[in-house]
Amino acid sequence: MDKELRIDKNNVPNHVAIIMDGNGRWAKGRGMSRIFGHRNGLTAIRETLQAASDIGTKAVTIYAFSTENWNRPKLEVNALMNLIVSALNSELEGFMRNNVRVESIGNIESLPKKALKTLKNVIKETQSNDSITLTLALSYGAREEIVNAVKNISKKVVNNELHIEEISEKIINSHLYTFNLPDVDLMIRTSGEQRISNFLLWQMAYAELYFTDVLWPDFRKEHFFDAIIEYQNRERRFGKTSEQITTKK
Ligand code: FPP
User: Fold this and answer.
1) Which end of the chain, N or C, is more open, meaning fewer C-beta atoms within 10 Å of its C-beta?
2) Contact 139, 194 (CB under 8 A)
3) Other CB atoms closer than 10 Å to residue 176's CB: what's the count?
4) Does the annotation count 69 as an active-site position?
5) Is residue 86 part of a domain?
6) Does the pTM of the predicted model rise above 0.70?
7) What does the alpha-carbon distance between residue 37 and residue 140 come to, in Å, rounded to a whole number?
8) Looking at the 3D structure of the chain, how many domains does it have?
């Protein structure tokens, strides 16, 4: 494929985070219910994973259900939970075939029992796969994640397991849900919305942000490659000057 050939395989993002937005609008445009849009979002997830795997990206994290999503109508929340269960079950074979390891971040204990059980099973079954890690953000909110980290660090300080002076970025990192993931290099949000919506706030500190008008159910490999090409055309300075980056000082 043309677009894939334009990608420099030595400069691919290690970790891509995705806000899959626009399922509801996609369905509405077809006179269908919102859950029809969510169901059609699964193809986009599959294509994204294949594309990411093709170019050598090691981690993809998708915002499947936010803490705020619990406030949606009960019917939609239930349908989404059922979809998560059926998708995890039906995709397991593909995850094994493609060597995909599944992980989750978020307050997963708040998921319905069946969803939690299915999720834990898929995480266990795929734990030795090592081609790419798909992390599902479920009942996830970045502020809640940071609050939890602060509480857990405070407990250690109170119990004399940690001194205040030892609290560092590294220590905070190690108390986040994402402790075993690298920082996000690229964040993709579909559907034209340009917000971060409480997703991986700490981990995206230096991420490149990419927004596209494509609605999530229409997102395909070529759209993922467009995002990667744009990423490779950006200059990541991490606070340095352009000259320092180009002369590698
Ligand atoms: C946002 O579109 C999408 C979601 C809130 C959920 C997407 C979830 C899935 C596709 C299921 C993933 C499941 C697994 C197991 C991988 P929206 O409803 O906000 O769309 P709108 O902005 O057009 O209303």
Assistant:
1) C
2) no
3) 19
4) yes
5) yes
6) yes
7) 21
8) 1
Burial class (CB in 10 A: 0-12, 13-18, 19+), 131: middle
Residue 66 structural domain: 11-145+182-248
Active-site choice (14, 54, 69, 82): 69
Beta pairing partners, 62:
18, 136
Q: Which residues line ligand 1 (CB under 6 A)?
A: 20-25, 34, 38, 41-42, 45, 64, 69, 83-84, 87-88, 136, 191
CATH of the domain at 119: 3.40.1180.10
In sequence order, the 6+-apart residues with CB closer than 8 A to the CB of 39 are: 83
Q: Under 8 Å CB-to-CB from 62, ≥6 apart: which residues?
A: 17, 18, 20, 45, 48, 134, 135, 136, 137
State the distance from the centre of ligand 1 to the C-alpha of 179, rounded, in angstroms.
Answer: 25
Q: How far is CA 48 from the centre of its chain?
A: 11
Nearest CA to ligand 1 atom 18: 24
- The answer to whether the CB of 134 falls within 8 A of the CB of 58 is no
Query: How does pLDDT run across 193-248, given as a tens digit for each residue?
Result: 999 999 999 999 999 999 999 999 999 999 999 999 999 999 878 888 888 887 75
